[in-house]
Design a protein that fits this description.
Layout lengths: L1 H15 L4 H8 L3 H13 L4 E4 L5 E4 L12 H8 L6 H4 L3 H14 L2 H11 L19 H10 L1 E8 L5 E14 L2 E7 L5 E5 L3 E10 L8 H19 L3 E7 L6 H5 L4 E4 L8 E7 L2 H10 L4 E5 L1 H19 L5
Antiparallel strand pairs: 1-2, 3-4, 3-7, 4-5, 5-6, 8-10, 8-11, 9-10
């Protein structure tokens, strides 16, 4: 809707300051011609929006102008309050700031919006943490924050997956929290950007030297590209392992609970209620572990290699316990 776009333009300009029409068009996903028409409409409505030509020109608002919270729509207000879990912000020492900000925002809202917020918070809640996720105490987070704010190099010792512990100098660019696990985007001087899991840093010291941060670095864009590359590499390294299994009705709960979107039912249940599923496991080892975990409530139909591996392992387990080695 045009009204939403006009408000969005005002908010973007208030947050970022002077921008070119081309930048605004890219941000709002419209043409430059549309941007100029919107500027005319806002100006005609009395909004203090201006344009200036030249090398340092652009579109800007009066520096003293501030948009009132009454301009927020119902959906926009509710989206700010739907989760009160500070999550990783607590690691950064910002949990209290988040709570205080929301309280101030709530107090500034029109009475109609305050009522809607209370209704929503009693009906919906978003918890960003996974079930049974191990909480990683992020080491050196204070040092990392200081280095990021001051563009300071760090001397670190890092525990890699493949090459053991390594020491290097890095230039930190940004911290990302994914499901409450912290990652650092950083460069080795003269090298490309890498992602480090913060919990794997063994030692860290702040260096006196600063580095010149690349002005065009976009943390969000880097993270999305990095995640896509990692997922593609994992698919190539560990391609899905398909298997057909026969499952007892008492064990069917396992698949929607732990393998959502990774299985498909084939045909109807048999007379005893057993169901045939086509399942995509991560690997043969993953399939073997999961099948053995369901015991006599699942039977492997194919591939034969998986069925043979399950039988071999089951016999070894029986022999191990029968001979008393487990005692």
């Amino acid at each position: 809707m045009r009204a939403d776009r006009l408000l969005a333009m005002m908010l973007v300009l208030q947050a970022r300051g002077r921008m070119t029409a081309q930048e605004l068009a890219a941000n709002l996903e419209v043409s430059e011609r549309t941007i100029y028409r919107d500027i005319e409409a806002l100006s005609a409505a009395g909004a203090p929006i201006y344009t200036q030509s030249g090398a340092n020109g652009g579109v800007f608002l009066d520096e003293h102008y501030r948009i009132s919270l009454t301009g927020l729509s119902r959906a926009q207000v509710l989206s700010l309050f739907i989760s009160s879990d500070a999550g990783p912000l607590e690691d950064l020492g910002l949990a209290n700031a988040v709570e205080e900000t929301l309280l101030k925002l709530f107090a500034a809202l029109p009475s109609m919006h305050r009522h809607e917020v209370e209704r929503l918070r009693q009906r919906f809640y978003i918890d960003p943490a996974n079930w049974f996720q191990m909480v990683e105490a992020p080491p050196f987070l204070d040092t990392l924050q200081q280095a990021l704010w001051e563009d300071r190099r760090l001397r670190v010792s890092y525990q890699t997956v493949d090459h053991g512990e390594i020491e290097r100098t890095i230039e930190p660019y940004g911290l990302v929290a994914k499901a409450n696990i912290w990652y650092l985007a950083a460069k080795h001087p003269g090298d490309e950007m890498h992602t480090y899991r913060v919990s794997r840093f063994q030692q860290m010291s702040l260096m006196d030297t600063c580095f010149h941060r690349e002005p065009n670095f976009d943390l969000i864009a880097y993270w999305k590209k990095s995640c896509a590359a990692f997922e593609e590499k994992m698919r190539e390294t560990f391609p899905p392992y398909p298997a057909t299994v026969h499952v007892h009705p008492d064990a069917l709960w396992y698949f929607p609970s732990f393998m959502s979107d990774r299985y498909e039912q084939i045909g109807l249940p048999d007379a005893a209620g057993w169901v045939t599923l086509q399942v995509s496991y991560e690997s043969m080892g993953d399939a073997q572990m999961r099948v053995l975990g369901l015991g006599a409530s699942i039977a492997v139909l194919e591939p034969v290699e998986l069925r043979d591996r399950v039988l071999e392992t089951a016999r070894a387990i029986v022999a191990f316990h029968t001979e008393g080695r487990a005692s």
